Amino acid sequence: MGLRVLGIDGGDDKGKLIKTLGAEVFIDFTKEKDIVKAVQEATNGGPHGVINVSVSEAAISQSCDYVRALGKVVLVGLPAGAVCKSPVFQQVVKSVEIKGSYVGNRQDTAEAIDFFVRGKVHCPFKVVGLSELPRVFKLMAEGKILGRYVLDTTK
Predict the structure, then answer these.
(1) Domain boundaries in the chain?
(2) Could you tell me the superkingdom of the organism this chain comes from (predicted)?
């Protein structure tokens, strides 16, 4: 779609995955001391748009800090009890738009499927049986999931 993608996650394996999926830049939050500075430097002043799927309250608030003036932050993750903290003065001066997105409509779904069918979007996933659920939860807690796991209840 012509977008330049930067991904933030933790671990070398996730960095490799993000790069194979087309991201130009990977920032490892487990190694980087100043995420805001790193993102702004990598994007020449901050990204125009941020899609934050994180469940980390700190990561959500950081996205409001590193987005450039007139940028948009779309919050998708649903961390229980989390709050998006962003100084009002900064939001007004930068004219940043913060919005949430929960689900798409039928047209969004049709476009997403079309992107996938045409090979414009790659989503690595692994199908496992329901008996693997405890192991998948353990991997999730350890931050070791690459891509997504899909549970097959027929196994």
Answers:
(1) 6-100, 124-155
(2) Eukaryota
